[in-house]
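#onboarding

Welcome to the new folks! Below is a worked example of what a typical request in this channel looks like: someone posts a single protein sequence, and someone else replies with the predicted structure as tokens. Don't worry about understanding the tokens yet, we'll cover that in week two.

Example request:
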Amino acid sequence: MHVDTPARPHTSTTHRRRARPIALLWIAALLLAACGTARGQATVPPGAAPATGDTASPAVSGAGVKVTIGSKLDVDGQLNAQMYALLLQARGFDVTTKLGLGQTPVLDQAIKSGAIDIYPEFTGTALTLLGLPSTQDPQKAYNDVKARYAEQFQLTWLDPAYELNDSYAICTSPAVAQQRNLTTIEDLKPIAGELTIAAQQDGIEAAVDPVERAYDLRFGNVVQIAEQLSFDAVTRGDADLNVCYTTDPAILVDNFVVLQDTKNVFPIYNPAPVVRAHLLQEAPQIADILNELQPHLSTEVVIELIKQVSVDHKSVEEVARAFLEQEGLLTR
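Example response:
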């Protein structure tokens, strides 16, 4: 999740059609996963030696190479970072992890200063950090951030997980979807004026307003509410729809329907390992090791992994290791 970044701006409390506050029961909030297949080629900085087949060489095996891997506070970020760590440890690297180190500004500063060497970042978040416009084109988003980070910060973006998109969506309960015959956002157009949508503060400007403009519709009521509580609001009937993050495990737990965004309103947020160029010069094989992971990650897969941590209360390391073993990535 990347809700802490400027990519999801706050809205004024005087937003139009603000509904009356709805009474909410205290419930235990799920831990969230936040702030969609050609693969980009990993960039090895100029002067980096290619990996060789000599497995006895420290540069190839990772022996003697120290790596510090960080992550943001969200569960999906911690899972990605833990997978990076396990993959590199399996190849002999001396890995230190700093999971849950902080929000986006903390991680951004940490890798630029050399306090960490690798962390997972989202293309959409990086575009915002760079002051570049968001885009629905995943390849363009990746190419833009990859080029700028290399030029400005000597940081390399490895391959992104194009099938994992941690963005916004419009959701609803199975009951409402069936009653209203909803499968796409386009289906809302003739009935939007009758519906109440619940949205977190950043979700109004980042999701509700763009949807209304793109699909030429207007919701009857907009209720501001914490994202993790919005699922319960829809289930209880206090709202008909809610703005959600596409990797929120509540989608899986509550069997919510994610309405298809046929007009591609929502920006792309694909994660990728961001690595200090100095480390890749020392151990260029890191690129191949971590790039192996990306085709195995998808939105559906990560929702299930997040659920295991947030709902089933398994540890991040346990879930990450089990997934890598299941995919055969720790035995290569």
